Amino acid sequence: LEEKISNLEKDSAGKSQQITTLNNSLEASKEQDKRNAAEISELKSSVKAVEAEKESMGKVNKDLQSRVEFLQIEVNSLTKELDEKKQNISSLTGDLQAAIEKMKRLEKELGELKQSLKISKTDIQKLKQETVSYTHLTLPTIYSV
Question: What is this structure's pTM?
Fold first, then answer.
């Protein structure tokens, strides 16, 4: 009987040791659970912040897309206007070249006219030196001229 009691006491001491170990383990586990709960809470806050940022970025993205569409319309309009102005410039350039050619022809004709109208100095001196006689003209002839 004593042996059984001794064995039971040993078992009891071992069980007591196991209970103490389990209690320590349980306390450590509770502490770990508290840390995990705090970490989960932080992660949930982070997730909420990320979701809010995502929503904000979605709005910014929509605004940017609208702005890009508006700017694309502006670019298309300005490109069309530029093309029209290029066509006008091309047309005006052709008109200007034609006018320059006409002006060159007119300058050449003017030069030719000036040449044909030039009276040499010797011709002028001859005209000055010649005497003109009006004696052969009759009175009605003078008035008719």
Answer: 0.41
pLDDT tens-place string over residues 68-79:
999 999 999 999
CB atoms closer than 10 angstroms to residue 90? 10
Looking up tokens 């700017």, which residue turns up?
Answer: 71
Structure tokens at 67: 């702005």
**Cα–Cα dist 115/68, whole Å:** 68
**CA pair distance 23, 52, nearest whole angstrom:** 43
The tens digit of pLDDT for each residue in 82-132 reads 999 999 999 999 899 999 999 999 999 998 887 777 766 676 666 666 666
The DSSP-derived string for 2-70 is HHHHHHHHHHHHHHHHHHHHHHHHHHHHHHHHHHHHHHHHHHHHHHHHHHHHHHHHHHHHHHHHHHHHH
Structure tokens at 18: 């196991």
Please give the C-alpha separations between residue 84 and each of 65, 71, 78, 91, 93, in angstroms, as whole numbers.
Answer: 29, 20, 10, 11, 14
Residue for token pair 């000036």 = 114
Measured between alpha carbons, how far is 48 from 98 in angstroms, rounded to an integer?
A: 74
Query: What type of residue is 89?
Result: I
Measured CA to CA, the distance from residue 55 to residue 58 in angstroms comes to 5
